[in-house]
Structure formats: structure tokens, C-alpha cells
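Sample entry as discussed:
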Amino acid sequence: MSIERVAIIGLGLLGGSVGLAIEEQLPKIATRGYDRDEQVRIRAAARGLVGEVCGNAQDALADADLVILCVPVGAMEATANELAPHLKRGAIISDVGSSKESVAKALAKALPGHIVIPAHPVAGTEQSGPEAGFASLFVNRWCILTPPEGVDQAAVEALSDFWTKLGAMVEIMDAEHHDLVLAVTSHIPHLIAYTIVGTASDLEEVTRSEVIKYSAGGFRDFTRIAASDPVMWRDVFLNNKGAVLEVLGRFTEDLTALQRAIRSGDGDTLHNLFSRTRAIRRQVIEEGQDDGRPDFGRKDHI
């Protein structure tokens, strides 16, 4: 199964980055894109995010071998319903959402008889919109595929090869397990960041700007995460609430234990925890998933 024409639906950070990555790494593949927001289409065309920005979804889908839905996970089913009459038989339909079980169910319901292979490139920034995309976003980052049972294996291999050629490392995973893993590694950290920045915002009124003025590196990193697209993250939490609530319950128990250690002056417990988490940080750097420099390679975002 070959992929010669790709349709990208949604031309923000991820959709735009997919288009630019294809242009750079797979220039023989023709790309068309569509976004329901006219201003986004205009800005995407000005940046050349895809070969052709179309005025409607039907034109973008014409003869596409691969259709990638780059819309918030809460909009997947409605978007798929809109596209269904215009999809080429045999086309692969995929996505880039960070929750997979709900997306798989939504796409299966909207697109019976079609080849649906949900995917999640574990890559992004706090920026959003067509200006935020860049071709190297997926290089040395994981892309997790969650193919449903019985799907055409040739299609899975074609999609895996596609992401590999864009620079990603591909992993096959069960959708339910994916959602639990991402709840730990991404969703709960974002929830914590949104919460602590919100708390600081309340305190900022009391301290008359001192929270902002004297922000240390830890708080700056939280604000970077908390600057992420609110629509996307609202939908992530609503669509992955089972795994998020499970991990949040465990986190709450651990936080309570930490409170007890601080209250009782249990320095050994604190030291053991901090030593263990420090080792995890080293492992993340060794795996090439972040930068070990003092500014974490993100100086421009501070």
C-alpha cells in the first residue's frame, strides 16, 4: 500500500508541522489541507503549510490515500461525519490526538467500513495556530499507533513507514494502555501546571505582582506548559477522564504522603523521593527526549 496523496484536516501546530515535514522529507507526496476557519486557511496558505489549501473539505480529500485529522479530540466524530461521504475507498484515516480510546470509538462509529488507524505523535509545543508549525517537530519523537483489531496490516505498515520517514520513532500500542501512559506522562503534568499557575494568579492579586516579578525557573516552566491550547486540553481531559482520574487519585495519595513527611520533619522520605525522581530526569535525557542544559534547551520560551 503506497501513500502518494495526503489530506490534512486542521492546519494548526500539528497539522501545519505534518505538512511542512512531508514537504521536507517526502517531497514526492502531494498535500492538500483544509481548516474550517477561513483566517487559518489564509495564514496556512501564506506559510505554504501544504501544497494546496482548499476552501472545502471535499476538495482537500479528493483522491487522498491518507487523511490525517488534526482537530481537537472532542471534534473528531463530528469532523469524521462531515468527511465520510467524500473519502476514497481504501484510504487510511488517522489522527494526531493525545487520547486514543475515545477517538478510536468515535472514528469507528462515524466511518464504518473504512481503514481507521488512530495515531499520536508525542510532540508539540505550547504554541498553537498555523504560525507555530515547523518541519522538525517529529524528529526523534515517538509516534504511537493504536490500530484496532482486524485492521489491514499493510495499512498499519504504510502508516508506520510514513511517520518513520518524517523522523519519528513508531510504537504500536493498545488504545487503553496508551491513554493510561499518557495520563501519567502528559495529561496530569498539564493539569498540575494549569492548577499551580491558576493558584499563583489568585495569589498575584494579594502580593501585588510579586509572584510574576520573582518567578523562578520552576514556575516559568509551569507557565510554559499552562500556555498550551485550552480547547485542545479541555477535550483531552473530557475524553480521557477514566485514565486521568485513576492517575490523579494515585497522585493525590502520594501528595498526601508528602504532606505528612513535611509536617513530621521526615527528611529521609523527602530525600529518597527526590533522589528517585532525579534519576528519572537523567533517564529522560539519556533517551534523547529532552536537553540537559541548564535552560533545558528552551531559553527562547522563558
In short: Confidence is low (pLDDT under 50) at residues 296-302. The CA atoms of residues 51 and 295 lie 36 Å apart. DSSP finds twelve helices and nine strands in the chain. The radius of gyration is 21 Å.
